[in-house]
Amino acid sequence: MKESTNLVERLGYAKTQKLLIIHADDFGLAQSENAATITTLETGSVNSASIMVPCAWFPESAAHAKARPNADIGIHLTLTSEWKHYRWRPILAAHEVPSLVDEQGFMHDSVANLIRYATVEDIEKELRAQIERGIQFGITPSHLDSHMFSLVAKPQFLTVYLMLSREYKLPLLLNQDFIRRTVGYDIHPYITSQDVLVDHLYSAEPNDYEAGMLAFYKQTLQNLSPGLSEIILHPAYNNSEMQAITTEHPYWAADWRQYDFDFFTSAECAEIIQKEQIQLITWREIREKLF
Amino acid sequence: MKESTNLVERLGYAKTQKLLIIHADDFGLAQSENAATITTLETGSVNSASIMVPCAWFPESAAHAKARPNADIGIHLTLTSEWKHYRWRPILAAHEVPSLVDEQGFMHDSVANLIRYATVEDIEKELRAQIERGIQFGITPSHLDSHMFSLVAKPQFLTVYLMLSREYKLPLLLNQDFIRRTVGYDIHPYITSQDVLVDHLYSAEPNDYEAGMLAFYKQTLQNLSPGLSEIILHPAYNNSEMQAITTEHPYWAADWRQYDFDFFTSAECAEIIQKEQIQLITWREIREKLF
Q1: Which of A209, B37, B124, B290 makes the best surface tag, with the fewest CB within 10 Å?
Q2: What average pLDDT score do residues A215-236 get?
C-alpha cells in the first residue's frame, strides 16, 4: 500500500494533510439531479461530479460540462438501470452488447444481474462507447468512476476499469477498504504503483440514513483522517420527478437526495471544512500532477 | 368524402350528432406529462391518449395502460426529438435506421429534417418496432397517431402510416382539412372507403396561445360542428422538469401544457360538454364498430 500512504506527498502536500474530494454522483440521471448538482457545484461545497452518459438528461449535464472545461467533471460509467419506471438502454445497440441488457432491452436492474449475465467483452465495448460519447458532447473528463460500484464487483470487471483509466489517462475512483468490506477480494494483484487509490471513501448507507444523514456527514467531516478521501453524495430535489423515479425504493430516494443537497449547500458544511482544516482537492488536480 | 360525412351514421349515431374525442398527446414524454395525463384521464374530461414509445418515461405510461386494458390508449408514433437538452433515440439501433438520426444518434429535431433525411424504409422499420415494443410492455393499443403530425408531412410517409393502420387493424388520426391547410396535398389518392377520417381536428396553435388558451378551448367546444371531431391537447404540469424540457421553446411549453391541464380538468369544461350535447367517443369504440 505504499502507493496510497504516500499519495498525499506525491500530490505535494504535507503527510498529515486531510485532502478531500466532495463528489456528486449521478449527474445526468434526471432533471432534478442536474439542477441540484449544478447548484451544489456552483454555490455549495461540492467540487466534483460525474455524468451518466446513457440517461435521458445526459445532454443537459454535458452542455454544463462543455461550458466549464476546467470543472472537475468525469464519466460515471454506467452498467445498471435500477429504477422501476424510468429506465435506460446502453449506448450501443442491444444486439451489440446482448449480455448487458434485460428482456426489455434496458440495462440490468441490479449489480447481481450484471454479475450473472455480463461478459467482460460487452462491458469493455459499452464503456468505451460511453467515454467516447461524453467526449463527443464536449465533456473534458477529469476522471472515471462507476455507477453502483459495479466495476469493482468482481476482479474481471476491475481489470476493464483499470485498463480504461490507463488508456485514457484518467484517474478512477478506487478504495481498497471499500472493496474488501463490500466485495471481499484483494485488489493488489490488479493494481500497479501508478494507479491512484483514495485512502478513505465515505458514502451514506441505509443505516446512516436511518440514523440521520446530516449527523453522518457532520461526523464524517469532523473525524476525517489524513490522506486522500472522497465523500460521495447524490444531490437532487425531493420533487415529483425524483419521487417518481425512486418509487418503491426506500433508500437513495428523493428525500435522501434532498438531504445530500441540503447539507452540502449549508453554511455549516463550509464552516466545518474550514474549521477542520480540510483541503479540498479535485480529480483534475490529481490528474495534472500524477498522470 | 362519403366516408367522412357518413361516418357518424356508420358509428350508429344520428347524423346531426356531435361526436368528440378529447385526446392527450405525448403520454410517456416526461414524468410531468405522465402525472398530468393520468389525472386528466381519471378525473378530467380527457378520454383518450397516446404513448411515445422511445421516451424515457415510456415504461411508466405503459404500466398505466397495461393496468387499464380498456382505456383508450394508442401509440403516438414518434420520429422527432425536438427539445434542446432532453432527447431520445429510435428504438432500433442507429445503424439499422441511419436516415432517422442526427449526428448524435438522436432522432431529428424537426419534421423538416425528417423530410430531408428519412427514408420510407427506415420509417417503416422503426414504427413497427415502436408498435411491437408497446405491445410487449402490455399496451393494448386502441389507435395510432403521429407525433408532430410527421406521418402526414408527405404522401410517402402517409402510405406507411396507412399501411400500419390496416395491418394492425388500428384506426389512425387523419383529417383532410388539416393536411390540405398545413401540408397542401390531397389525400384522396391514398385512402380507401375503409379508412376512418375525423371530420374536424382541433389543436391549439401559437396564435390561440397568444389570444388565450382557455378562450380557444371554450369556443371550440361551444362551436363544435356535427360529425366526428378530435381535440388534441398536451397536459403537463408547469414544473421544473417540464420547464427544463421546453427551454427556449416559446410554444407547446410548460405553461401551455398547464393551461391544457387546467381547462380539461375544470368543471366548466365538463359543463360545456354537457350543455352543448357533445357525445364523447373513443378510438376503442370506433375500432370495435368499424375494424
Answers
A1: B290
A2: 98
Length of chain A: 291
Whether chain B has a CB inside 8 Å of the CB on A57: the answer is yes
> How far is it, in rounded angstroms, from Cα B1 to Cα B20?
19
The H-assigned helical ranges of chain A are 2-5, 7-10, 31-43, 58-67, 111-117, 120-136, 155-168, 176-182, 206-211, 213-222, 240-245, 254-264, 267-275, 283-290
Whether pTM exceeds 0.80:
yes
Q: Give the rounded percent of residues in chain A with a pLDDT score beyond 70.
A: 98
* Interface with chain A: mutation pick from B52, B240, B246, highest number of A CBs within 10 Å: B240
Q: Does B35 touch chain A (CB under 8 A)?
A: yes
Pseudo-torsion of CA A196, A269, A23, A110, nearest 10°? 110
- Exposure pattern of B272-281 as b/e (b: 16+ CB <10 Å)? bbeeeebebb
A31 in contact with chain B, both atoms CB, cutoff 8 A: yes
- pLDDT tens digits, one per residue of A161-200: 999 999 999 999 999 999 999 999 999 999 998 899 999 9
Instruction: Compute the average pLDDT of residues A83-92.
Output: 98
Contact check, Cβ <8 Å, A93/B88? no
How is B187-247 classified by DSSP, letter by letter? -TTT--TTS---SEEEE--HHHHHH-HHHHHHHHHHTPPSEEEEEEE-----SHHHHHHTT
Q: Is A104 on the interface with B (CB under 8 A)?
A: yes
Chain B residue nearest residue A243, CA to CA: B31
- Which cell numbers in the block locate residue B208? 390561440
Kindly state whether A86 is in contact with chain B, defined as any CB-CB distance less than 8 angstroms: yes
pLDDT tens-digit readout, B206-253: 999 999 999 999 999 999 999 999 999 999 999 999 999 999 999 999
- Counts for chain B of helices (H) and strands (E), in that order: 14, 7
How far does B7 lie from chain A, in Å, by closest CA? 39
Q: Do B31 and A240 touch (CB under 8 A)?
A: yes
